[in-house]
Amino acid sequence: MPAYEGLTWDHPRGYKALEAAAAGLSEAKDGLTIRWDRQPLEGFESHPIDDLCRRYDIVVLDHPHIGEAVAKRCLRPLETLFAPQEIAAWGRDTIGPCLTSYRYAGSHWALPLDAATQVMALRPDLLDRDPPRTWSEVVALPDKLPVCLSLAGPHAILSLMSISVSLGTAPGAGEPGRFLPPPAVSAALEILRPLAARSLPAARGLNPIGILCRMASGDDLALCPLVYGYVNYAAPRDPKARRVAFHDAPAATATGRPGSTLGGTGIAISRRCQATPALLDHLRWLMAPEAQTGFIPTHDGQPSRRESWQDVAVNAAWGDFYKNCFRTLELAWVRPRFDGYIAFQTQASAILRDGLAEGQGAAPIADRLQDCYAAHRPPDAEL
């Protein structure tokens, strides 16, 4: 049979393990071959999912696309491919809300291959103190310490939402159709404004990978309080690269909930795919302890299995990345997934960036964000 066509994203965390696993397959031995293409991070975050599913059998995606995918009927629900007890076991074994983030409209739509969330990234050699644990400690860091926020692309609104979660108000959790109450937007902006004002100008247009690359390659950026964690920078293979350490995202209080919006990736099967038992067995193997604690970490991947994040050898190999960020991921907040959310995320980030740059008040920013949310959220939509 012809090879399955897969699409993942163009970063070692996104493609190395999948490509290495596929390279070990053969039609004669396994009855299976898979060819993986790559797309840039920006495409992964925003490209229409139905277009990708027309061209690929297997698609690595993130959970905010699920509502769009369900509306356009372009994915196969896991319940039609795997036994209920298998799905339940993945739910028990996966860290935090990674599997449940792919459950929408009564079904699961992707396997949680990779786990990530926003955490704090810093250069330990440039920080002459313990990592800050609260937002007030972050804001109080000395002006001479070079910091930045992750505000490019969708990350501006993700940062505001995460800060609001840490302060006790989750988006969409109040009255139906309300994004965030104006007081919650105002409280989050009190943290965002001073940090945005002092953020390293050269880093303002960078996505999370760009921010972490800059932290690893120079000495002009010591801390980013909220950025998606990439284990690859915690133990760099390049001897010239500086080590970036990762810690729990800031909270409102030292013992409070870290404010963080879940990321990570799932592996989904498109409607065009004729899934054979051999393909399903390969996906099962990617989710199994052997791959999650052994194969995937050794190929620069970031596993989703809870025991992998707690594994002593895995942490020793990767600078305690997993141990240091474990609590944040367990408590991460799941974004809305309704059809239209991706467009809201993009436009809301632009609204917020403009508001910060122009010094707009909290009330007009909150009103514009609410109008944007109402324009993109279908009535009575499941979040």
Automatic annotation (TrEMBL):
Which Gene3D superfamilies does the record cross-reference, listed alphabetically? Periplasmic binding protein-like II
Please identify the protein, giving its name as recorded. Answer: Membrane protein
What organism, scientifically named, is this protein from? Hypericibacter adhaerens
Q: What taxonomic classification does the UniProt entry list for its organism?
A: Bacteria, Pseudomonadati, Pseudomonadota, Alphaproteobacteria, Rhodospirillales
